[in-house]
Amino acid sequence: MAKLSHINADGEAQMVDISTKSVTQRAATAAAVVKMAPSTLAMILDGEMPKGDVFAVARIAGIQAAKRTSELIPLCHPLALTNVAVDFESHNDDELHVRASASVNGQTGVEMEALTAATVAALTVYDMCKAVQKDIAIADIRLLSKTGGKSGTWQST
What we know:
With 157 residues, the protein is of the alpha+beta class. It is built from 4 helices and 5 strands. It has helices at residues 38-45, 54-67, 69-72, 111-129; strands at residues 24-35, 83-91, 95-106, 137-147, 154-155. The radius of gyration is 18 Å and the shape is elongated.
């Protein structure tokens, strides 16, 4: 059986020691889909949501979340991120696609930071719109790509 990197010899959870890993440029991109009524998406796109600018608030929330990933996910290392970007795109008339990217010059990857940014941005869209529609759904949170480190480049299919 393969040795699990986050489990020590006694079977206890542990943070992986990255002290001997090389510093490389690392990046990751993640996504989420926010599904809602066409009228709700129209209000977002037209800037008519009662709580204000959904994109601005959700973008800042996603960026802030990426910076705090190690506080939320117990075994993640704190990273000095060099960039975080969160973007939105409407699809059909009832979906808002969230795309978040993170990068770092470091010893460990930024997949969790990108995933956290996409997830929190999607949750913030829900929070900004819940007064208008309660049954908004968040779906398809996933890693799209990662680069850097020993394992190199990975792209979802």
